[in-house]
Design a protein that fits this description.
The complex is a heterodimer of chains A (197) and B (372).
Chain A (H helix, E strand, L loop, with lengths): L3 H11 L6 H13 L2 H17 L1 E2 L6 E2 L16 E5 L2 H10 L5 E4 L17 H8 L6 E4 L5 H14 L5 E4 L15 H9 L5
Parallel strand pairs in A: 3-4, 3-5, 5-6
Antiparallel strand pairs in A: 1-2
Chain B lengths: L1 E10 L2 E7 L4 E5 L6 H13 L18 E10 L2 E10 L3 E6 L2 E2 L3 H4 L5 E4 L5 H4 L2 H15 L1 H25 L9 H35 L6 E6 L10 H14 L1 H7 L10 E6 L2 E2 L6 H23 L4 E4 L8 H10 L6 E5 L12 E7 L2 E4 L4
Parallel strand pairs in B: 3-13, 3-14, 8-12, 12-13
Antiparallel strand pairs in B: 1-2, 1-4, 4-5, 5-6, 6-7, 9-10, 10-11, 14-15
């Protein structure tokens, strides 16, 4: 339908996750309506972000320096590490302000279908962090789907012999939720994970 | 449960259709290839979201069109609901209940239950194990959300595990990474196998009742042939433990074959008639009676769970049956069940006509038969 540079622009925008062909078109037309300065600012920000932002050399979350602000913060509890799948999971946990430990991003999960095995995850780096350290507990915060669960089981087997306490994020009823509206699976899981008062 | 109205747009050979149904029997009469089964297909989709023809959604669109719609009004437990399916070519479908989008199929299922009787049901007795597994899975998925979720997870783990076994075979991955998948595989499998076992025990009780009611002096029985306990009694945890040990003992064979060779995906049901394997030791007529009885048992099981009868679709079923078996079916069709039947001759349904609404189906159009 479109040709030349416009077609290329729509195609590029449409490669991004969550952007279908229609949204890509809308974004393209929106950008073309903007002032040149606006579009330039966007382009510069994208390139600057790409050049500046990298992975923390300790925990692999996103940061602008060699080491992220969480790993370098002396007030964080360095005896506690929460292991997550992706850098954006760190942001989700940080938003809560309920966790004061450190993170470790695996950069994925075990998934043979996607060619992902233990060597493709940041597991060696995690083991290195645990050596000669004062880490007392590792919380596995991978997603509760079959890939996240497989990764959690694998890490559990690997870490427990090292004498470190390994825990798993609880799954069950949502906060402020109503039992009436929870689906059967959530309730079943919540029953399985019940605790004594 | 009732489907009171059905509107189709660009669905199969229907450009536009808008019909009201009887709460009892609805009979679609017409020559071959006029669209009778397409109507049943639309009704089946309202129940299960999928076609019984096992085709891709795009094939439901009228040729040359890029969108199609099914709109229906249903009544369940006295509550009226509007159901809307939108199919868009190469994109997929969207489902709406009372104007609210059902994002997951599992959220939608359970709005209405629909059971299809068709000549291919004979495969439940004569065919491969997959037909019988589909029978129990469909019945459990309709009545038990936990089963549905465990089955989806089991299939996902199985796919990952099979892929990994091939990787190990080709020495791309080490053997020690099977553990996390095995652990999940056996725990989902334990739940699935136990639920199947319980279901089959219930279905056997229902079958006994049905045979008694229809005055058939035979005993039909289903034996659950799982690949781990092979028909012996078991509990969920026992199943998981034994499955795990068996996986260990056949590890080399699985790697050589590059797939998981035991578990619920390989289960079968042995169907017995008077203690003999019905696949080999029963007549064609007896097999037809058994196939219909299995569907009837499905209907009664759904009633036992929801205290309401599902909707029955009978596709070209009467032409295949002799008078004796037609009699069984008509005896079974209670007045409080809504049924949809296809056929080529009105005379085949003379016994049902008093309470039925008859539609003449001709080239993608439905007209009410004025002689009803």
């Amino acid at each position: 339908m479109y040709s030349g540079i416009l077609a290329r622009m729509i195609d590029e925008l449409g490669r991004m996750p969550g952007i279908g062909p229609k949204t890509a078109q809308r974004l393209a037309f929106y950008l073309l309506r903007q002032e040149r300065a606006e579009v330039e600012r966007l382009a510069h920000t994208l390139i600057e972000a790409k050049e500046t932002i990298r992975y923390c050399s300790i925990c692999f979350s996103l940061c602008e320096n060699e080491i992220c602000s969480i790993c370098s913060n002396p007030r964080r509890d360095s005896a506690l590490i929460c292991v997550v799948e992706e850098p954006n999971d760190v942001f989700s946990l940080e938003r809560t302000r309920a966790f004061n430990g450190l993170y470790h991003v695996l950069m994925g999960t075990l998934s043979p279908l996607d060619g992902m095995g233990p060597d493709d995850l940041k597991i060696t780096e995690l083991l290195r962090r645990l050596q000669n350290s004062r880490v007392g507990e590792v919380i596995i915060g991978t997603n509760p789907d079959v890939e996240g669960e497989a990764t959690a089981i694998y890490l559990g087997k690997l870490l427990k012999p090292l004498g470190v306490k390994v825990t798993r994020l609880a799954s069950g009823l949502p906060a402020n939720g109503n039992l009436e509206y929870a689906d059967d699976i959530t309730i079943t899981r919540a029953l399985g994970g019940r605790r004594e008062l | 449960m009732r489907i009171t109205t059905l509107k189709l747009k660009n669905f199969r050979n229907y450009q536009e259709l808008d019909i009201d149904f009887s709460d009892h029997s609805n009979i679609f009469i017409g020559n071959n290839a006029q669209g009778k089964t397409n109507l049943l297909e639309a009704l089946y989709i309202i129940g299960s979201t999928k076609s019984f023809r096992r085709v891709h959604d795009d094939q439901l669109l009228k040729i040359g069109q890029n969108n199609a719609g099914i709109n229906a009004e249903i009544i369940k437990k006295g509550l009226k609901k509007t159901i809307k399916f939108d199919f868009i070519a190469k994109t997929g479908k969207k489902i709406w209940v009372n104007g609210k989008n059902s994002k997951k199929i599992s959220d939608y299922l359970g709005n209405i239950n629909v059971i299809l009787f068709c000549p291919e049901d004979l495969m439940l007795i004569k065919g491969e194990a997959a037909f019988r597994r589909r029978f129990i899975d469909s019945l459990l998925c309709q009545t038990d959300n936990v089963y549905l979720s465990h089955l989806i997870n089991f299939q996902r783990v199985l796919k990952q595990r099979n892929f990994l076994l091939k990787d190990i075979q080709e020495r791309k991955k080490a053997k020690d990474v099977l553990g996390p998948w095995d652990e999940q595989l056996v725990s989902f499998a334990g739940v699935i196998a136990k639920k199947r076992d319980i279901l089959i025990k219930n279905v056997n009780k229902i079958l006994e009742m049905i045979y008694k009611k229809l005055n058939i002096d035979e005993k039909m029985e289903i034996i659950y042939k799982d690949t781990i306990f092979k028909g012996e009694n078991f509990e969920e945890e026992e199943y998981a433990t034994k499955y795990k040990n068996k996986l260990k003992s056949i590890n080399f064979e699985e790697i050589r074959k590059g797939m998981t060779i035991i578990g619920p995906h390989r289960d079968d049901l042995e169907i017995k008639l008077d203690n003999l394997n019905a696949r080999f030791y029963s007549s064609q007529g007896q097999q037809r009676t058994m196939a219909i009885s299995l569907r009837m048992a499905e209907v009664e099981y759904i009633y036992s769970v929801f205290s309401e009868y599902p909707i029955l679709l009978l596709d070209d079923i009467f032409s295949e049956l002799d008078d004796k078996r037609k009699g069984y079916l008509i005896k079974f069709l209670k007045p409080d069940i809504q049924i949809f039947i296809t056929g080529t001759r009105v005379s085949d349904f003379s016994q049902m006509i008093p309470r039925a609404r008859v539609f003449n189906i001709n080239q993608g159009k439905a007209a009410i038969n004025k002689n009803e």
